[in-house]
Amino acid sequence: MSLKNVTIYDIAREAGVSAATVTRVLKNSPSVKEATREKVRRVIDAHGYAPSSVAQDLGSGNTKTIGMILPSIRNPYYADLVSAADAEARSRGYSLWLYQIPPEEEITAGVVGSLIARRLSGAFFIGSFVDVDRPDLRLLLDKLGKYMPIVAICPPREDLGFICMYHNLDGAVRQAVRHLHLLGHRRFAMIGGAERLEDSGARALSFLDELRVLDLPAPPEYGHLGGGDPAAGQQEVLRLMTRLPKEQRPTALLCYNDLVALGALHQLRQMGLRVPEDVAVIGCDNQFFCPFTAPPLTSIDMQTEEHGRSAIRELLSAPKNRSATIVRDASLIIRESCGAKLGWQDRG
Amino acid sequence: MSLKNVTIYDIAREAGVSAATVTRVLKNSPSVKEATREKVRRVIDAHGYAPSSVAQDLGSGNTKTIGMILPSIRNPYYADLVSAADAEARSRGYSLWLYQIPPEEEITAGVVGSLIARRLSGAFFIGSFVDVDRPDLRLLLDKLGKYMPIVAICPPREDLGFICMYHNLDGAVRQAVRHLHLLGHRRFAMIGGAERLEDSGARALSFLDELRVLDLPAPPEYGHLGGGDPAAGQQEVLRLMTRLPKEQRPTALLCYNDLVALGALHQLRQMGLRVPEDVAVIGCDNQFFCPFTAPPLTSIDMQTEEHGRSAIRELLSAPKNRSATIVRDASLIIRESCGAKLGWQDRG
DNA sequence: TTGTACGCGTTATCAG
DNA sequence: CTGATAACGCGTACAA
Question: Is the pLDDT of residue A28 over 90?
């Protein structure tokens, strides 16, 4: 066991050549005598030697590493994004460096500092902490942008200084509302997300606006709690279905994401409410478990795979500080939790 | 926008000091005159300068980075492990470098080469591809072990040359079988996993042995397919419940993992079979969605958080090539899919 | 209190 | 075809 890592000089000495020749062999340069090449290769193999990419990175100024900054890899939506990004990156000889920022923390100067310090080839921000309305954050990202290209999933703005990838949920949300309206639903609620519904992003605004278009009342005041996990969904449903008089309770639930929907479905079941007969539920993200909930969850698909892959592509082709907006339309995937498909009765 | 990264020399020149002094300021060395310190700091802040950790790594020979090698971050079990590992690593000033190896690929010399090239501080292998029975793989890991400490989740062996973390499922699996036996179940099957049930690791062996202990017949020949996702669970159930005559069909299903169980639950529901009345189902991994399936899924908890954290701790305290085995007992978390809890009738 | 010089492991350039 | 040398950006030992 060698405590000290074997270097190109160790290989060179042992093969009786110079370091430059070892490099040439490593790089398959044609200008090496076959005998020399073989001799060097044998030594390399004997040691299992691989040139230090740390040193290579320093020399080339290119780490071929992309930083993924996200709240938690445990959220399957982020995991999908990371997985897709990793596949794309790896196919191009790049790899991923993980940076989880727990939801209770935020992007600080320290975080940006350590991203800069890493001399990454790019940074991919996923998660709602990229709030482009906060000037301090904009400043931080501006600074970071001087060092590497940035892609962030966030609502588009003018002149962001980085590449913004955006899910356009508007069409899907309106479609969902209209769909449920057509089925006779008149009382809607959106559960989970930010504490104030209005802060839950474009999806909430589209939702509220579509209610207006359909001349439906705004969601009742039941004390929106927010949150992004199953527990949040449970609590919201509990609140809605117990604090409100029966005739005010919503019959259609749009969930901030599928995790919230999972908790909502469970709570409804526990309360003896049937989905979709008593309450319709729609999720968001179209996560892997949607086809397998009871009933299968109607959800909004975000083209996660494509988003993740194209983020890497943009990162690798973009000059630093380029402003751009990439929008992808989300689409409603209708399953059985919204009462659209017939046949669910068979499985009661 | 500076195309060239700003270096410590740029800062030094602009502040009218030497690079060493900049380092001192960066390191909060006490031996710097206050005036100098402030002057340097101002320049640093103005540039948003952060010293290149690539250069630091090269100099110190320590990348403070741990490689995570796994099949897919999309499996929530691995995501949990990575998340826990990341938290532990970050709290110690280390970070994680992701290396996904798709299930159809394996650990090759190339993979090991790029791990060595990265000069990682350690490697954490998670996923069933660490098959310690394969001599070629052992060789590869031996080589890797010369460069960095290794922790792998795999069955224990003598003298592995790295740290083996192991889930002891034996107790939980036997407990599950006995529990179901007590409830009157006599026909058991394990679904998902490796193509040959016997290759699905210790959990399968414990399962088969416990059947023997209870003097129950071995699972019928229904053509075990294997697999680790919901689709596999669906297919296995479909097979079991259609290819076999009714009196041979299993009434108790142990699933390779919770994803398989998710698919199984869904398929059973679709076929009009009730869980747990007609068929009992038990999963494995105790993933986040278990409490929210219909009915809530009984599962085997793996202490994922603890496993992930302690893997990092071991990695950072272990000399290279140390052999060790860390075993943690898994435990059965009884919910409603195995018919243990009364009260499920309320929710039919 | 501050500056100089060298090493970390590699590759590119230039010379032979 | 092969070898010597500089440069990448930083920390550290030593000198002043």
Answer: yes
| Confidence check: pLDDT of A222 > 70 | no
Residue A128 contacts residue A192 (beta carbons within 8 Å): no
CB A301 within 8 A of CB A333: yes
At the topology level of CATH, where does A65-168+304-328 sit? Rossmann fold (3.40.50)
What Å value separates CA B53 and C1' D14? 25
| pLDDT tens, residue by residue, A95-118 | 999 999 998 899 999 999 999 999
Q: Which CATH architecture has domain A169-302+332-342?
A: 3-Layer(aba) Sandwich (3.40)
- Window 26-65 of A, Cβ < 8 Å to B: 48-55, 57-58, 61, 63, 65
Q: Nearest-CA neighbor of A318 among A116, A122, A58, A115?
A: A122
Neighbours of B273 (CB within 10 A): 16
- Spatial distance between the Cα atoms of B273 and A347, rounded to a whole number of angstroms: 9
Q: Is the CB of A270 under 7 A from strand C?
A: no
- Strand, helix or coil at A223? coil
- For chain A, report the end-to-end CA distance as a whole number of angstroms: 64
Name which residue leads in pLDDT, B45 or A220.
Answer: B45
Using DSSP's 3-state secondary structure scheme, residue B170 falls into helix
**pLDDT digits over A301-340, tens only?**
999 999 999 999 999 986 666 788 999 999 999 999 998 5
State whether residue A136 is helix, strand or coil: helix
Structural class in CATH, domain A3-51 = mainly alpha
CB < 8 Å to A41, chain B? none
The three-state secondary structure class of A274 is coil
A146/B54 CB distance under 8 A? no
Burial (0-12, 13-18, 19+ Cβ within 10 Å), A153? buried
Cα distance from A327 to chain B (closest Cα, Å)? Answer: 24
Whether B98 sits with its Cβ under 7 A from any strand D atom: the answer reads: no
Tens-digit pLDDT profile for residues B143-187: 899 899 999 998 888 888 899 999 999 999 999 999 999 999 999
SS3 B122: strand
Instruction: Write down the pTM of the prediction.
Output: 0.93
Looking at residue B227, what DSSP letter applies?
Answer: B
